[in-house]
Amino acid sequence: MTVSSLSNADRAKILVEALPYIRKYVNKVIVIKYGGNAMTSDGLKSDVMGDIVLLTLIGVKVVLVHGGGPEITDMLAKTGKKSEFVEGLRVTDRETVDIVQMVLAGKVNKDLVNLLETKGGRAVGLSGIDGRMIMAKSKDERLGYVGEITKVNPAPVWDMLDRGYIPVISTVGCDEEGNTYNINADTAAAMIAGAIRAESFFTLTDVRGILRDKDDPESIIRTVRADETEDLIKSGVISGGMIPKVRSCTEAIRCGVKRVFVIDGRIPHAILIEMLTDEGVGTMFTKGE
């Protein structure tokens, strides 16, 4: 069933039911971390950008933080460089970090800004280098120019929000000497959300949420307290690539974000379903008691 097939009464009912949720988010800031399958599919990408513009039109202030791992890998392959990873993080030498900056702060960032504008939004592309937004240091000498965040300056984000723009942020950072670093997008998004005291933080991934049984998509855990996450990691419920994502979520909670959501970016309009309905599509992290 599509919206066009609904009666006028049904359309009005949907809007009325969404009203309490809209009230909760009007003039509030949310941060969306965007990447993975939702980014590589043109159809899903168009849906996500359309949903972001819709949220801004009803009064929600949206900050979009993006990665671009597949695009970086493709560009490295075109230049004859092989992608290497240590504990899930890309080994980034001097040449690679230049390519990372070019792909993330250049092509991926500007493509998203352009798409938001074509959907009727007002967007401005930023990188973590702009305004010294993301300050970093070397995380591990084995990884080269992979950065660990030392400070987040939220002023450039607030400047854009106050002027009615959607800040679109690529996750490259720098240090006082001007070295550029490749920053994990989940970590950067969480720390930006904390720095601006976002109402909610949404991270789009390629699973339905946190699953009690990884082989059973229906075993989703709907709510997790921040102080439960390490026990879930130790028990193996959270494993592999979900560990850094979940730790980023709990860090955002500790930094003052009220609610954090891990949602399936493969589901069309997943953000709207999570924000504006009782149904929800993922796992919510809260501070709890």
Can you give a write-up of this model?
- With 289 residues, the protein is an alpha/beta fold.
- The protein has one domain (27-286): Acetylglutamate kinase-like (Carbamate kinase).
- The protein is 41% helix and 22% strand.
- It has helices spanning 8-25, 37-40, 42-57, 69-78, 94-118, 155-162, 185-195, 229-234, 242-254, 270-276, and strands spanning 29-34, 61-66, 85-86, 89-90, 123-127, 134-138, 147-152, 166-170, 172-174, 180-182, 200-205, 223-225, 259-264, 282-286.
- An 8-stranded mixed β-sheet has the order 5-8-2-1-11-13-14-12, with helices on both faces. A two-stranded antiparallel ribbon has the order 3-4. Strands 6-7 form a two-stranded antiparallel sheet.
- A hairpin with a 5-residue loop joins strand 9 and strand 10 (180-182).
- Helix 4 crosses helix 5 (94-118) and helix 7 runs parallel beside helix 9.
- It is globular and about 60 Å long.
- It starts with 7 loop residues before the first helix and ends with a strand.
Summary keywords:
289 residues, alpha/beta, Carbamate kinase, 8-stranded mixed β-sheet, two-stranded antiparallel sheet, globular
What is the count of structural domains? 1
Give me the strand/helix succession: HEHHEHEEHEEEHEEEHEEHHEHE
Rg over C-alpha atoms, rounded to the nearest angstrom:
19 Å
Q: Quick one: biggest sheet?
A: 8 strands, mixed
In percent, how helical is the residue content? Answer: 40-55%
Report the total helices.
Answer: 10
Globally, the shape reads: globular
CATH fold node name:
Carbamate kinase
CATH H level: which superfamily? Acetylglutamate kinase-like
CATH class category:
Alpha Beta
Q: What structural class do you assign from the helix and strand content?
A: alpha/beta
Instruction: Give the number of DSSP strands.
Output: 14
How much strand? 15-25%
Spans of at least 5 consecutive residues whose pLDDT stays below 50 are none
**What topology, given as strand order, has the largest sheet?**
5-8-2-1-11-13-14-12
Mean pLDDT: 88
CATH architecture: 3-Layer(aba) Sandwich
Spatial gap, N to C terminus: 41 Å
